[in-house]
Amino acid sequence: MNGAALVAIAATIGNFLQGWDNATIAGAVVYIKKELQLGAAVEGLIVAMSLIGATLITTCSGTISDWIGRRPMLILSSMFYFLSGLIMLWSPNVYILLLARLLDGFGIGLAVTLVPLYISETAPSEIRGLLNTLPQFTGSGGMFLAYCMIFGMSLLPSPSWRLMLGVLSIPSLLYFALTVFYLPESPRWLVTKGKMLEAKRVLQKLRGREDVSGEMALLVEGLAVGGETSLEEYIIGPADELGEDQEPMADKDHIKLYGPEEGLSWVAKPVSGQSRLSLVSRQGSIANQNVPLMDPLVTLFGSVHERLPETGSMRSMLFPNFGSMFSAAEPNIKNEEWDEESLQREGEGYASEAGDADSDDNLQSPLISRQNTSMEKEMAHPQSHGSVLNMRRHSSLMQGNAGEVAGIGGGWQLAWKWSEREGCPLSSRRGSLVSIPGGDAPIDGEYIQAAALVSQPALYSKELVDQHAVGPAMAHPAKTAGKVQILAALLEPGVKRALIVGIGIQILQQFSGINGVLYYTPQILQQAGVDVLLSNLGIGSDSSSFLISAFTNFLMLPSIAVAMRFMDVSGRRSLLLTTIPVLIISLVALVIGNVFNFGTVAHAVISTICVVIYFCTFVMGYGPIPNILCSEIFPTRVRGICIAICALVFWICDVIVTYTLPVMLSSIGLAGVFGIYAVVCVVSWIFIFLRVPETKGMPLEVITEFFAVGAKQAAGGGAKNE
């Protein structure tokens, strides 16, 4: 956990620099227009040039990051920041300044787009929301510190705008050093390129433990986009409680589950007919079944989280089911390389680094070795308190001490199911089971119901099964990922639904009023008499506005800290549905305060309170969560390009809102502008309630599989309705 947290903190320096730049240009432009005698159009262009640069770089950042990796793009971002800072420090004329601002925009665009993606791909699912709120915190912290610096410089006899802007190059040097010498590459990206050993080493560093084979297996399964994914249900009970007529091996539908201790086993029997759990899985929770226009995805995700709601548990009764990434050979058939590797690596299941010049290509070595049992259909199952899932007698796929979350994160456990195809000793059974979390295993003769996501193994190759009678039927991860066509992947039903969620929430966030309130804040605080108080202290008007802005950003920091605390407990969807009504009330109060005459003092007090509440509430929910969601809901293979699409929409809407605000103010006034923002917030709440699922505590690959299943269910439901 500490490794992932430190990596996330280092990555978010890019967002710190974005916040720093936003504040410094807002202060420096006051002095730039005086020295260079600029008109309003050129002044606006200087400020907007970074937006233009961010928009331009975003159009290609996702595709390039999927090609060369996340880390090189973050290094490039730090270089753009550093170079732009040096050029702004020099800037002999406005044209050079515009060029520097464009380069600065390139750095901002890369950081804003890729830092949330990078954090999501490196963070454990249990604290992914907390770590992905860090960009909001560091961005606001950067703005606060920059405004403090500008305020101090504004008290000098002749403030230097070049120095204000050029200071950016100093923290960008730290960012460059950390990206080059400290930040690892995303393990999920490494898996897409087939660099399994490097991905394993990175995961060990991030998780602080040696055994990361369970998460490695999950990452490989994440290479698939779309595919046939379905929900299956099981009744699980102790094997020794079954009668003779229920002997599991007498019925091909029974699956034997093995615990880590000798003699400890259960049997999973498929559920036939419509069970209570299937109704929940297919139609959503009881509370939402009758809600008109409710997306099945929302209810499907909701059914996961409502199983164990206490203390914000990340664990679920529903457990996803991914494919095995190896096939099991018949025990009495000798395969020298397989057996030698198994003896050497004892359960890590990775190719011996010394045994092959290119270990990543050694497909004879399975990622996770088969337990040395018969070829009967079986599945490993973790003990309730140890969470140890044995794939072989002396090795474990996942392990943790009592009370710790083990497996693939967030209480989700990964296991496999094998079957023997007649006439071929290789596994041909698709799918694998991810078990219920620790504490839910049946004990004392109890039986429980559980569900699984079942999908075709990502590396399972029917062609290899036909070619080789013995050995693993695996395709190389890079080859598997390379088969995915980008356009076809974007048109997959699950990906399309995820894009609707991501693009929709980015558009609505930009039109929800944050830019208008930021624009109006200095005027509101001046009306409240803050400028008069500061002028009595001998502080000029420009310095007063900088100090007011610093105070505004300072107020955001504790609110963001609260959001970090609850992001993985209450969840993203719950925070949005709770905080947006507060935004609506604040905006409506601002409209009322501007429509009716309550007197100068009352108006100033009402406006100030509403603005402070709006800011603090916005950064707790609607500020960070859209970027968090966009970094979670897309498959690994197309995550970069999908996030770039959402970020491009964000920047375009940002430009539209920024440049239409003065026009709207002059045409419909403050009351009209805030009224429109309030209506957009209402629309946002409805959109989130109907379309945005809860993703807290779920591994990224589980989230994307759920989107695929939900899209399939929605399509099936639509066909039935027709």
Write the layout of secondary structure elements.
Elements: H1 2-11, H2 13-36, H3 40-68, H4 70-90, H5 94-122, H6 128-154, H7 161-166, H8 169-181, H9 187-192, H10 196-207, H11 213-221, E1 230-238, E2 255-258, E3 265-270, H12 276-283, H13 296-305, E4 318-319, H14 336-345, E5 378-380, E6 448-454, H15 462-467, H16 477-482, H17 486-490, H18 493-510, H19 514-527, H20 530-536, H21 541-566, H22 572-595, H23 600-618, H24 625-630, H25 639-691, H26 700-721
Parallel strand pairs: 2-5, 4-6
Antiparallel strand pairs: 1-3, 1-6, 2-3
Pfam family, one: Sugar_tr
Catalytic activity: D-glucose(out) + H(+)(in) = D-glucose(in) + H(+)(out); sucrose(out) + H(+)(in) = sucrose(in) + H(+)(out)
Subcellular location: Vacuole membrane
Describe what you observe in this structure:
- This protein is mainly alpha-helical and about 725 residues long.
- The chain has helices at about 1-10, 15-35, 40-70, 70-90, 95-120, 130-155, 160-165, 170-180, 185-190, 195-205, 215-220, 275-285, 295-305, 335-345, 460-465, 475-480, 485-490, 495-510, 515-525, 530-535, 540-565, 570-595, 600-620, 625-630, 640-690, 700-720, and strands at about 230-240, 255-260, 265-270, 320, 380, 450-455.
- The chain has a six-stranded mixed sheet.
- Strand 2 (about 255-260) and strand 3 form a beta hairpin.
- Helix 3 (about 40-70) crosses helix 25.
- The chain is globular and about 80 Å long.
- The model is unreliable at about 240-250, about 275-285, about 310-360, about 360-405, about 420-445 and about 470-475 (pLDDT under 50).
- Belongs to the major facilitator superfamily. Sugar transporter (TC 2.A.1.1) family.
- It is a multi-pass membrane protein.
- It is found in: Vacuole membrane.
- Its main location: membrane.
- Keywords: Membrane, Phosphoprotein, Sugar transport, Transmembrane, Transmembrane helix, Transport, Vacuole.
